[in-house]
UniProtKB/TrEMBL annotation:
InterPro entries: KR_dom (IPR057326), NAD(P)-bd_dom_sf (IPR036291), SDR_fam (IPR002347). SUPFAM superfamilies: NAD(P)-binding Rossmann-fold domains. Gene3D superfamilies: NAD(P)-binding Rossmann-like Domain. CDD domains: SDR_c. This is 2-deoxy-D-gluconate 3-dehydrogenase.
Amino acid sequence: MTDDQLFSVAGKVIAVTGGSSGLGLHMVRVLASQGAHVVSISRSNESDSLCPSGGEVMEIIADVTKAEEIVQAFDEAEQRMGPITALFNNAGVAHMARALETTPDMFAHIFSVNVAGAFFTAQEVARRMIKRGQAGTIVNTTSILADRPQKGTAAYAMSKACIAQMTKALALEWAGHNIRVNAIAPGWFPTRINEIQLGGPAGGYIKGSNPMRRLGEMQDLDGAILMLASDASRYMTGTVITIDGGHRL
């Protein structure tokens, strides 16, 4: 097998939740540019430039906190694209607030999307793969804040720690079905979810405290995205790949 074949996602049907903005939008573009048939699932169609030249992207509006919408989204996706072979379980929200200022509504919203939404989306995809006797891969999005929280991120960091542990638990349960479950833990990448934080005084501190003295750039994720979606990771499961320029050190 050549290197091109090893990392190839050409012809694979790959779903990305939270695919209309931020890291999810980049995942959609990278995968489609490499020949994957991509299903972008998000609560709203916020992007007018999902599909790169030559790529194929199907957009579905769905809320991952609603079980019936998750089922309907994958029914629709598979009717048009065929069986899902990979899921990038990326939908997420954040409320930057210190622990004493975090309200029950903030906490419930974060855990509803980031934890319950991710779990039941993975569950639905795995059920379909197992029913067909089909191998597959699920890639969750956690964060370096799961291991190295900062002030003002308590609820968000807790939710991402849940995802890191969920990745291991699901990998253990589904390995016998040849379903791999791994995760990407990005460091500080400028997106809409953190633009206020990175745009203020904290942004300079975060950049300066990184051993590489910079924030992440979207293309820094590409290698991990393609590896985890392809046969290059066929003997990897339960692994969290940190992409942070050494920020956690």
